[in-house]
Amino acid sequence: MRADRLVSLVLLLRQRGRMTADALARELEVSTRTVLRDIEALSSAGVPVYAERGRHGGFGLLPGFRTELTGLNHDEALALLTAGSGRGERAFGLGAALASAMRKVVDALPDGPRGTASDAAQRILIEPETDLLSRRAAADDEEIPGPAMAEVRRAVLAGHKLRIHYAATDQAPRWRTVDPIGLVTVRDKAYLLATRSGEDRTYRLSRVRAAEELPEPAERPGQVDLDRIWRERSARFLADGDHLTVRMRVDPARREELLNTALAVRMEEPGIGNWLRLEVTFQDARHAEWALWQLGTDAEALAPESLRTALRARAAALAAHYDAEHGMPHQ
Predict the structure, then answer these.
(1) What does the alpha-carbon distance between residue 182 and residue 225 come to, in Å, rounded to a whole number?
(2) Are 152 and 160 in contact, with CB atoms under 8 Å apart?
(3) Looking at the chain, which terminus has fewer C-beta neighbours within 10 angstroms, N or C?
């Protein structure tokens, strides 16, 4: 709709400053002629759009221009309200801010769309805390204190160095100074991506006991691709240490249960009959043995042979335990 496009045009100029008609046309996926007509319509409506001619010219808004834009359509409002109703509300200590933002979104809607969008959002649930088997989703044992989370956020967004009182696994907490790069949340676990003395570091936020934003600028690039950085660090993590990669087959009905325990899935394809073939990475051999044991006969380890041997030995020991000669006498 044209009204939505006009709002998007104003938002682009507010957020990016001066832009050419060609650049606006690419962003809005319309013709340059349409952009020029929209600019004229905005000017007629009192929006202070000005044109600057020349090689580096374009269109912009007069400095200091602000307006309340209420051009959300029903689906846009529904998307925001639904996102705000999920478990993401706790991410990075922004729950209160998100709740406030959602109230403003609802308040900005006209009376009709306000009621329908709010009602519709109540009928969509994102990532409930338990699944159909009443298993609670995994969550960090301890949440980072609110003031510490605020310090971490400020340092990340301002580009300042950060001191964190961090408790690594099986270690007492100690202070360390890092250059923060960004924040990532995966399966309800939040991480700080940073460098320390030029070396890549990834910190679980649940293990941060206290934090302090420092005035010194962080040593980090101006532009960042967090998705790429996360993939690279994940690949390095899986390549290091005693992680075990297992080739296996599993009943499709138990696939999600398996993936909830694995570190990563390297390959997945249909198998013979009603099976899925996967190549899965576990923390170590003990983790792999435990995970496959939970699945019983709905999964089979194909390699390595050491894992098959361990599972066979465990099954034999259990069978011997329940054998009549080793168990309780029959009544």
Answers:
(1) 9
(2) no
(3) C
Q: Are 174 and 210 in contact (CB under 8 A)?
A: no
Q: Packing angle between helix 95-108 and helix 74-85, nearest 10 degrees?
A: 160
Which string of DSSP letters, residue by residue, matches 175-233? EEEEEEEEEEEETTEEEEEEEETTEEEEEEGGGEEEEEEEEEEP---SS--HHHHHHHH
What is the C-alpha separation between 5 and 19, in angstroms, rounded?
Answer: 16
Q: Please write the tens of the pLDDT for every residue from 228-257.
A: 888 888 777 766 667 888 999 999 999 988
Residue 194 and residue 204 in contact, taking contact as beta carbons nearer than 8 Å: no
Least confident of 14-18, 140-144, 167-171: 140-144
Q: Around Cβ 235, how many Cβ atoms within 10 Å? A: 11
| Confidence label for 107 from pLDDT (cuts 50, 70 and 90) | low
Please name the residue that has the structure tokens 């649940």: 206
Tokens representing 84 are: 């705000």
